[in-house]
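Worked example (supplementary).
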Amino acid sequence: NAGVTQTPKFQVLKTGQSMTLQCAQDMNHEYMSWYRQDPGMGLRLIHYSVGAGITDQGEVPNGYNVSRSTTEDFPLRLLSAAPSQTSVYFCASSPMGAVVETQYFGPGTRLLVL
Amino acid sequence: AQTVTQSQPEMSVQEAETVTLSCTYDTSENNYYLFWYKQPPSRQMILVIRQEAYKQQNATENRFSVNFQKAAKSFSLKISDSQLGDTAMYFCVTRGTSYGKLTFGQGTILTVHP
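After joint prediction of all chains, the assembly is encoded as:
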């Protein structure tokens, strides 16, 4: 049981480039989400999904796209990278139906946009 | 909308001593949940303890306990018998009725000294 995995661990992009951050979980969790973590700030929700084919925006969705074609995978796409998107990105998953969910976080992807 | 404020950017404690991390929050929802997450240098996010707002009894988890003051909207974390492995960033987190949409505080860096 690998839990939540994220690739790559570290990436350097040039302004305007696009890329996809991968997230996968093997716990059959319905709920998945993406957060970004900036210095001096807590994690902020970018996008989330409550199941395959269903996604919605979080607090800071601009500049990011997501899709959920399978239960296991929830990739995050940067369409045209900007320096303001330099951050550490966390993917999380949790089972739905519990009264209080426990979110399982991945190890994070550190992104540097030059 | 929810907000979470952690007013202590950094704290330190000697091994085996007790330390309390402060957190205040604001929410317009009647039903909500509160969490403390730990982020060690590995960047992995780890759930430490959780509290349902409708429960008056403070949650405890081994050496970790909370002081939940609902009227004051305060949710502090007490760590007893501090260990070197407790060194980490600690986040106070809330969730309202929107499943899985967590709101994070800014974090408190805790250093445990031998």
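Two points are worth noting when inspecting this output. The mean pLDDT of chain B is 92. DSSP finds no helices and twelve strands in chain B.
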